[in-house]
Amino acid sequence: MSLTPEVVLHAYASGVFPMSEGRDDPEIFWVDPRERGIIPLDGFHISRSLARQMKKGGYTPALNHDFAAVITACADREDTWINADIEQVFTALHHAGFAHSFEIWQGDRLIGGTYGIALGRAFFGESMFSRATGGSKLALAHLVDHLARTGFTLFDTQFLTPHLASLGGMEVSRATYRAALREALSDKADLFSVALEQDPHCVLQRVTQTS
């Protein structure tokens, strides 16, 4: 099966997603984890150190300012599941309005970000990167806040890593995930219904659960 935007969207709506063994591996396989990683939109953990960084400011969050730079940065590591075909199809999905990047900038320097697919009221997080302390955590904090403000109900992280667990991520069974996915796909949310919050203090006020 060739990897096309249509195939990828159908897969996500069915609860599976594509991966590769490495950057230079042309093969694609489909994954349907028995335990699925999610971040509850009302359960994101902001640590004291992250809260201090947000209060200090000195950064600018952005939505879709440079999707290509984000996915390239996510793939630019020794151990990656993003091969050329995956990068190409997600770039096509971005141009079609389904794939989006959340970015953290310091001036003209991109210091962190994440990207994923929006379908219905579900956001499927794909990967993230950081080029400065807290870069990816800042991106996730602003992403979670924005998803909650724009009517999303499911933030799928695919797997649960220690990093995501420290931010409030958890695992749910395949059956529980599929039920949440069906519910999320039964209605629509719009990432652009409100502007991305630029004031970190407002994000902190809304995301009140701290670790």
What tags apply to this protein structure?
211 residues, 7-stranded mixed sheet, 8 helices, 9 strands, globular, two-stranded antiparallel sheet, alpha+beta, single chain, Aminopeptidase
Give the biggest sheet. 7 strands, mixed
Number of separate strands: 9
Shape: globular
Distance between the termini: 44 Å
Supply the number of structural domains. Answer: 1
Mean pLDDT: 94
What does this structure look like?
The chain is an alpha+beta fold and 211 residues long. The protein has one domain (32-77, 100-206): Aminopeptidase. Helices cover 37% and strands 24% of the residues. The protein contains eight helices and nine strands. The strands form two sheets. A seven-stranded mixed β-sheet has the order 4-5-6-7-8-3-9, sandwiched between helices. Strand 7 (122-130), helix 5 and strand 8 form a beta-alpha-beta unit. The radius of gyration is 16 Å and the shape is globular. The model has no long low-confidence stretch (mean pLDDT 94).
Topology:
Elements (H helix, E strand, L loop, with lengths): L4 H10 L2 E3 L9 E3 L3 E4 L9 H9 L3 E4 L3 H9 L8 H12 L3 E8 L2 E11 L2 E9 L4 H15 L4 E5 L3 H5 L3 E4 H12 L14 H7 L5
Parallel strand pairs: 7-8
Antiparallel strand pairs: 1-2, 3-8, 3-9, 4-5, 5-6, 6-7
What's the short version?
By secondary structure, the protein is of the alpha+beta class. A hairpin with a 2-residue loop joins β5 (99-106) and β6 (109-119). The protein contains 8 helices and 9 strands.
